[in-house]
């Protein structure tokens, strides 16, 4: 081999040696860098799991009913002579609602009163004769029977006249009248409805398994959707004495105040039945701290892995939990957390097991 060719081969070998050396050094440096690389910390917000007083409740759908509610109707037939109310008017017990023509009944009453007066005179005369031993006991008894019959006739006529006048049996609000002045009505014709509005009953049903949790005087909240909505507090006043075999539900009745008459019988409301307070306060976290998956519900727990107490090296780890009752923005944790655990409340989509984090509670993260 010629001398120039040998030099070329030597130079070529040196070149490739340098090239592969540079590549090897770069690879070693890259591997060293990757082994010491830490991704940037994810910004999250957090809160501390803590025990709180918690009162459980049951939900039901209820119907509002009047304590007293009737369709006022006439006992006797007649022609309406006077209407003494307006539709929707509030009336007191004993107020006259309407009166019907009673000319014939008034005439009958006068006739029976005259008969009664005569029977009374005849009885007194017969009694005077009996005291003087001029008349017999049988004649006196006959006059007394006539007096009683005449008195019964007067009471019967008065009762017929009273049936021509319809009065309010209790305090309440009248509905829309169903009859007109001068109209002939027969017995049983509905004239107007009357509903007492304060207080009101709320009737609802619950499954039989909750019977042990119900008691008289138990507090409830009733939410009614009208206008901007309204929540009224009340108490359970009656529990039915049997369970319906078809539905296995028990009927419950509660009483709520309605001093401003804003609620009406027939409305429906969402009923919240408050149970006795839990003896042991549960661990509570915001619902935003809980993530849901097919494998189960979980939260991210924050741990400080720094050896120096004055420094923070925060990492998060997935912790599966058993979620209990949810209410508004909070939820109880039955298993998986203990009081004092720091949990992530936002930013969970960027997290994995072992992710390094920094806490910033000043902003709400997604």
Automatic annotation (TrEMBL):
Residues 202-272 form the CusB-like beta-barrel domain. Coiled coil: none annotated. Residues 283-347 form the Multidrug resistance protein MdtA-like C-terminal permuted SH3 domain. InterPro entries: Beta-barrel_RND_2, BSH_CzcB-like, MdtA-like_C, RND_pump_MFP. Belongs to the membrane fusion protein (MFP) (TC 8.A.1) family. GO terms for molecular function: efflux transmembrane transporter activity. The gene is bepF. It holds the Pfam family Beta-barrel_RND_2. It comes from Aquicella siphonis. This is Efflux pump periplasmic linker BepF. Residues 73-193 form the CzcB-like barrel-sandwich hybrid domain. GO terms for cellular component: efflux pump complex. The lineage of its organism: Bacteria, Pseudomonadati, Pseudomonadota, Gammaproteobacteria, Legionellales.
């Amino acid at each position: 081999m010629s001398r120039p060719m040998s030099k070329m081969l030597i130079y070529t070998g040196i070149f490739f040696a340098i090239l592969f050396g540079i590549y090897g050094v770069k690879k070693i440096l890259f591997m060293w860098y990757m082994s010491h690389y830490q991704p940037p910390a994810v910004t999250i917000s957090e809160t501390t799991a803590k025990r709180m007083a918690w009162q459980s409740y049951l939900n039901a759908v209820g119907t509002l009913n009047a304590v007293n509610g009737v369709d006022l109707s006439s006992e006797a037939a007649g022609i309406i002579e006077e209407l003494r109310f307006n539709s929707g008017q509030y009336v007191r017990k004993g107020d006259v609602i309407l009166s019907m023509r009673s000319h014939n009944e008034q005439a009958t009453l006068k006739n029976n009163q005259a008969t009664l007066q005569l029977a009374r005179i005849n009885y007194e005369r017969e009694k005077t004769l009996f005291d003087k031993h001029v008349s017999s006991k049988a004649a006196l008894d006959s006059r007394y029977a006539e007096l009683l019959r005449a008195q019964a006739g007067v009471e019967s006529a008065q009762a017929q006249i009273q049936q021509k006048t319809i009065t309010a049996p209790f305090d309440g609000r009248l509905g829309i009248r169903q009859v007109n002045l001068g109209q002939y009505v027969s017995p049983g014709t509905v004239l107007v409805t009357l509903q007492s509005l304060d207080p009101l009953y709320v009737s609802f049903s619950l499954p039989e398994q909750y019977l042990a949790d119900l008691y008289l005087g138990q507090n409830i909240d009733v939410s009614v959707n009208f206008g901007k909505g309204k929540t009224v507090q009340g108490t359970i006043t009656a529990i039915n004495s049997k369970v319906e075999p078809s539905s296995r539900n028990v009927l419950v009745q509660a009483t709520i105040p309605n001093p401003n008459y804003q609620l009406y019988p027939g409305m429906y409301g969402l009923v919240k039945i408050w149970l006795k307070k839990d003896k042991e306060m549960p661990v509570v976290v915001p619902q935003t701290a809980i993530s849901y998956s097919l494998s189960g519900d979980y939260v991210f727990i924050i741990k400080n892995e720094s050896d120096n107490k004055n420094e923070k090296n925060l990492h998060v780890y997935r912790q599966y939990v058993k979620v209990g009752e949810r209410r508004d923005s909070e939820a109880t944790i039955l298993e998986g957390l203990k009081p004092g655990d720091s949990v992530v409340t936002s930013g969970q989509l960027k997290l994995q097991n072992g992710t390094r984090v920094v806490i910033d509670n000043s902003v709400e993260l997604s």
